[in-house]
């Protein structure tokens, strides 16, 4: 880092067709924010660049489904995402968007420069065309049956059921998502970035010069390069996007993967119009991309190839990409609503931004996929934030308030144990730094929490509440030391838990502009005689019923997904009319209904069948209360032979239909009819 004067941090642009969820936060935004806050505390020149990705097929599809324009969609979600980030405490220097005038001009100029330098190749290939809508279809506009798992709703680029990447031509029975028509293959011309041309450079730059990159990033890049890179299209036949700025490209736009990373540049331009080139072209600027693993190839291979072809831009120094975060053992899915959405979390847990930041960092999927569970969320809050960090701060400040009216006492001579605990602050600072500098945020936060553990142990060992009775002078030193540890916690947690660190700072008189990272480890941060504010709790316990409400929401989502995925069973093999006429289906009125003893599933009916009555036993006890069926009319098969069930002779079968959720509904006439009437 010594060779760099400043650091440019970019975060993957969230797609503006839905809200942000915890997978995005854990994979990209929380670690990026931690690192930016850390560098700022160190006094370094840093920019944190974010923004919304607003072009591409899914946005156009969503707009078509809702009967609105794509601009309506991106305006809605850009606003929601930006507002959620602000409330969550993301410290972006700019949060822009790829529909801005600056971005459209920047992306167009970037394409045109590469075009004029001859960095693209033109190719004509056959792609699917909708003869009814009269337009070429992007992969997401084509649906069909996945050849791998049989999912009938697979897209032309990926099957979301099995996760397999596809080409549109792989689909069985493809159809247009616009009109439903069967698409036709027709020739169309596009421009391609010849990644194969840049393969020698990429091989040397990544595989030889950046072996320090995370193993998951390095490994994925090596795999792609070793397979041999292929030209990649930079244009698409679409109406929503930035028009390709050359003659003969009518009806074509820049492919979203080409225009989106240029958004980092255009957002920097909007923020720093006079010196943006210093941040992108000066070799003394370090650039870092914080992304998820699904963006590794674009940020380590494709975007660097674009920058290299252009010729004047810096290349990223590191790409600390994370793997995926799962939710309750299942893959987070926007389409299945299987997620914890940031804007909903902020509504459900007001004032608890730091709890989510803490848990997501503690479970960060840094080199392998990890899992978020609500029970773990509760446990980490209650057992770590409340019982370790919050408990120490509260004990130290409450005791100081009780014994010294909130005024920091004069310290006497330090014992060896005092010196040992204070020395731990310096040692732990080095541990935190070494981990932050190498993007191990999970380990860094753990070391910060170890400071609080040192503080708790110090108070437990020294027992000032007992010593005050025999040696009040010693207690002054104990509480002086405890308050210095609290002050160190204020600095150590500032990158991780900004809201809580500020709240602690307010209580002990340490506003954010009163210290730097270099102050961490000092033992004189709060001077004797300082009047502290009355302490309040930094964290509060989260009760079981709060967590149960979140788990119930997920259970409801799972049930809704089952219903959405439901489709009727295939028609049974043919039945002749004569066979059907053998069934004697009648209408009857329920006179009595009781549960069959020792049978959880069975109800015993007394039916008025118009012929003197009959008893029927039916396995629907899970779905109805007996009293709710009395007086109802039902259809039943009257000519089944009697059969004994749990000691009760059943004289027929009540007809029911199975709901998509697996529950049963009895079948009956829509209006009252005489008992005994035949159905047919």
From TrEMBL:
UniProt EC number: 6.1.1.10
Co-factor binding comment: Binds 1 zinc ion per subunit.
Keyword Protein biosynthesis on entry: yes
Residues noted as binding ATP in the record, renumbered to the chain: 334
Listed GO MF terms: methionine-tRNA ligase activity
Location(s), subcellular: Cytoplasm
InterPro entries membership: aa-tRNA-synth_I_CS (IPR001412), Anticodon_Met (IPR041872), Met-tRNA-synth_bsu_C (IPR004495), Met-tRNA_ligase_1 (IPR023458), Met-tRNA_synth (IPR014758), Methionyl/Leucyl_tRNA_Synth (IPR015413), MetRS_core (IPR033911), MetRS_Zn (IPR029038)
Entries under Gene3D superfamilies matching the protein: HUPs, Isoleucyl-tRNA Synthetase, Domain 1, Methionyl-tRNA synthetase, Zn-domain, Nucleic acid-binding proteins
Motif range ('HIGH' region): 14-24
Main location: cytoplasm
Protein family per UniProt: Belongs to the class-I aminoacyl-tRNA synthetase family. MetG type 1 subfamily.
Role according to the record: Is required not only for elongation of protein synthesis but also for the initiation of all mRNA translation through initiator tRNA(fMet) aminoacylation.
Self-association and partners: Homodimer.
Protein's name in the database: Methionine--tRNA ligase
Organism: Falsiporphyromonas endometrii
Originating gene: metG
């Amino acid at each position: 880092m010594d060779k760099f004067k400043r650091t440019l941090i970019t975060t993957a642009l969230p797609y503006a067709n839905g809200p942000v969820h915890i997978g995005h936060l854990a994979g990209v935004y929380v670690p990026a924010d931690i690192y930016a806050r850390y560098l700022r505390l160190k006094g370094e020149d840093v920019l944190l660049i974010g923004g919304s990705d607003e072009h591409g097929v899914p946005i156009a599809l969503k707009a078509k489904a809702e009967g609105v324009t794509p601009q309506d969609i991106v305006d809605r979600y850009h606003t929601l995402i930006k507002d959620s980030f602000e409330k969550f405490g993301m410290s972006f220097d700019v949060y822009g968007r790829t529909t801005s005038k600056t971005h459209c001009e920047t992306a167009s100029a970037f394409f045109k420069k590469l075009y004029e330098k001859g960095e693209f190749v033109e190719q004509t290939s056959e792609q699917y065309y909708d003869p009814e809508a009269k337009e070429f279809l992007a992969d997401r506009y084509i649906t069909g049956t996945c050849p791998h798992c049989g999912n009938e709703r697979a897209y032309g680029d990926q099957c979301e059921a099995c996760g397999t990447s596809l080409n549109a031509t792989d689909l069985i029975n493809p159809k247009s998502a616009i009109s439903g028509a069967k698409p036709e293959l027709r020739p169309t011309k596009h421009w391609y970035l010849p990644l194969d041309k840049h393969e020698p450079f990429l091989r040397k730059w990544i595989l030889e010069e950046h072996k320090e990159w995370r193993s998951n990033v390095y490994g994925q890049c090596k795999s792609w390069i070793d397979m041999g890179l292929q030209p990649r299209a930079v244009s698409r036949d679409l109406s929503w996007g930035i028009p390709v700025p050359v003659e003969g490209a009518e009806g074509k736009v820049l492919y979203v993967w080409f225009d989106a990373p240029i958004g980092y540049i255009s957002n920097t331009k909007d923020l720093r119009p006079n010196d943006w080139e210093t941040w992108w072209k000066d070799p003394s600027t370090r650039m870092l991309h914080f992304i998820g693993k699904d963006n590794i190839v674009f940020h380590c291979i494709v975007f660097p190839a674009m920058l290299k072809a252009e010729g004047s831009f810096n290349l990223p120094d590191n790409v600390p990409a994370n793997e995926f975060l799962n939710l309750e053992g299942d893959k987070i899915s926007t389409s299945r609503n299987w997620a914890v959405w940031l804007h909903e979390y902020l509504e459900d847990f007001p004032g608890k931004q730091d709890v989510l930041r803490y848990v997501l960092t503690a479970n960060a999927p840094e080199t392998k996929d990890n899992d978020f569970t609500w029970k773990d969320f509760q446990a980490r809050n209650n057992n770590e934030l409340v019982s370790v960090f919050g408990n120490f701060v509260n004990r130290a400040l409450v005791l100081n308030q009780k014994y010294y009216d909130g005024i920091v006492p004069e310290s006497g001579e330090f014992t060896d144990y005092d010196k040992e605990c204070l020395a731990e602050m310096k040692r732990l600072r080095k541990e935190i730094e070494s981990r932050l500098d190498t993007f191990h945020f999970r380990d860094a936060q753990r070391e910060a929490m170890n400071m609080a553990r040192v503080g708790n142990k110090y108070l437990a060992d020294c027992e000032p509440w007992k010593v005050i009775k025999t040696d009040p002078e010693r207690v002054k030193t104990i509480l002086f030391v405890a308050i210095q540890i609290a002050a160190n916690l204020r600095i150590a947690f500032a990158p991780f838990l900004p809201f809580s660190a500020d709240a602690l700072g307010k209580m002990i008189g340490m506003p954010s502009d009163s210290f730097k990272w270099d102050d961490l480890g000092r033992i004189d941060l709060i001077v004797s005689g300082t009047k502290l504010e009355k302490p309040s709790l930094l964290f509060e316990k989260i009760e079981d019923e709060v967590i149960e409400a979140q788990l119930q929401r997920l259970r409801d989502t799972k049930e809704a997904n089952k219903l959405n995925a439901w489709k009727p069973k295939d028609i049974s093999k043919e039945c002749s009319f004569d066979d059907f006429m053998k069934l004697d289906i009648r209408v009857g009125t329920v006179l009595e209904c009781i549960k069959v003893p020792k049978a959880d599933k069975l109800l015993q009916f007394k039916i008025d069948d118009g012929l003197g009555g009959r008893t029927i036993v039916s396995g629907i006890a899970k779905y109805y209360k007996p009293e709710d069926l009395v007086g109802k009319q039902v259809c039943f098969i009257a000519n089944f032979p009697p059969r004994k069930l749990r000691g009760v002779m059943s004289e027929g079968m009540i007809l029911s239909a199975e709901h998509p959720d697996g529950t049963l509904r009895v079948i009956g006439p829509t209006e009252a009819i005489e008992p005994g009437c035949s159905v047919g």
